[in-house]
């Protein structure tokens, strides 16, 4: 090399990012400040001092202290200063508002926190905040990088995957970091030195050490951009080749439905959730194959075919999930879980029909799956809007579900005796509390005394009766099949605490069971079977009335065949020819009652 020639950096020494040299110091300072703030909040909780004594302060401060520094550390040195400041300020305001509302919606006016703890920050708030911030951080990063409000799809793709890989590596690094510290503590402990074990158990060390480790991990992955890109490439390549397999599974499932019908699917009682999970996996795998949509990548033909087929399979999966949810809502009204499921279905419908339209346009001569890029961007903004609505008064699932359940009660769709007052108490938050207060005064003209009775019990959180259950309590607990029959007066008036022999639904408020009638001993009089459990496994107590009009245990019976409990509820059971006690025949299976416990019989093939 001549003296006039500048030195050339080796490939391993070449600069890998445009991150300023002082960025690492700024990130370490931010991590240290975050650790200090979180330790002070922990200290207030440990000593029961402010702000832990006021959840309206503690929860917002926790949310801000955990998430805002992470947003800053990840974007520092890469974003424009103006964008970074505006986003951190906005995120602080949004997180504070969401956390404050999360507390407000659970707080009983003049009462204790529902969760029974010092704070009532829900797991759902934390989980969906992570999702929302991930999406928002990626969208803003791409827009800031290209200096425009709506960036190109390639920029969004790069920003999202960079952030995802950084977070995964940061979690792994922190786990290994603490593993090394614990290993060191064990080694020193072997020779009687406990100082390291004592140190890492101190909150004043553990919390700042963790936040600093996160800052270091994010900075290293940011500087080593090629490392992140390489990991992303490997992950996408591996996942993309799972798409053909998942597409075959989804297509096979969909094509089997005309032959099997939907009954087995409904029997799972979780059809919508399972179908949406399958749809989510398909969406992720489609995007691992599609990547940034650049035609120059020249994806293998099998992946392009799988992308198109998976996009088509998405449509029936999401539509069936929508139908399953609709059926449940028609039967039982809206609940918090069903409203969240409906929001998920809305997003899934956008993906399904957007991808299907993309395939249709491609087959008509357009660029392959070109519309999918726009669908992904639009859906990302829709997800953010949906999350903000769900965790604000606008679309609060608790508020909407309480309104739905109250409408069912007032319209006569559900009898006041069978109404789920406990749902209002434990799932309805502040809105459920207000509804229970209203129900104590409401006059519907049917079973008003029972409604006032149960509403007051649910509102106070006490047993409906201090010992023996009343007739109303037992009627509320026990669902009778068929509904044309009713429990005998002797059964309802029996003091089960004294006589014993019955399951919890006749002796404890709020314990539910089903009641069936069948003549097991062949004497011409029906016994009562009180059944607990699920469609996967149920067990029953057979009760017989004696000459003294006292109902006593005759035998026990149980089943473990899928669909058998639903068959019992539909009245599809017969009595077998008599033996010592007659068998119950459900779905062709003879279930033998025994005076004691017996295992369930084998199910039919």
Task: Provide a compact summary of the structure.
The chain has 605 residues and is of the alpha+beta class. The chain has helices at residues 23-47, 55-75, 81-104, 123-146, 153-190, 195-200, 203-223, 225-240, 243-260, 263-267, 271-290, 301-332, 336-363, 370-390, 397-411, 421-427, 429-439, 448-460, 471-477, 489-493, 496-499, 564-569, and strands at residues 478-480, 513-518, 527-533, 538-545, 551-559, 573-575, 584-586, 589-591.
Kindly describe this structure.
With 605 residues, this protein is an alpha+beta fold. The protein folds into three domains: 23-109 and 120-233, no CATH class; 241-395, no CATH class; 469-605, no CATH class. Helix content is 61%, strand content 7%. The chain contains 22 helices and eight strands. It has helices at 23-47, 55-75, 81-104, 123-146, 153-190, 195-200, 203-223, 225-240, 243-260, 263-267, 271-290, 301-332, 336-363, 370-390, 397-411, 421-427, 429-439, 448-460, 471-477, 489-493, 496-499, 564-569; strands at residues 478-480, 513-518, 527-533, 538-545, 551-559, 573-575, 584-586, 589-591. The strands form two sheets. The chain has a five-stranded mixed beta sheet with strand order 1-2-3-4-5. Strands 6-7-8 form a three-stranded antiparallel beta sheet. The longest helix is centred in the N-terminal third of the chain and has 38 residues, at 153-190. The model is unreliable at 1-16 and 111-119 (pLDDT under 50).
What does the secondary structure layout of this molecule look like, with pairings?
Elements: H1 23-47, H2 55-75, H3 81-104, H4 123-146, H5 153-190, H6 195-200, H7 203-223, H8 225-240, H9 243-260, H10 263-267, H11 271-290, H12 301-332, H13 336-363, H14 370-390, H15 397-411, H16 421-427, H17 429-439, H18 448-460, H19 471-477, E1 478-480, H20 489-493, H21 496-499, E2 513-518, E3 527-533, E4 538-545, E5 551-559, H22 564-569, E6 573-575, E7 584-586, E8 589-591
Helix pairs in contact: 1-2, 1-7, 2-3, 2-4, 3-4, 4-5, 4-14, 5-7, 5-8, 8-11, 9-11, 9-12, 11-12, 11-13, 12-13, 13-14, 13-15, 15-17, 16-17, 16-18, 17-18
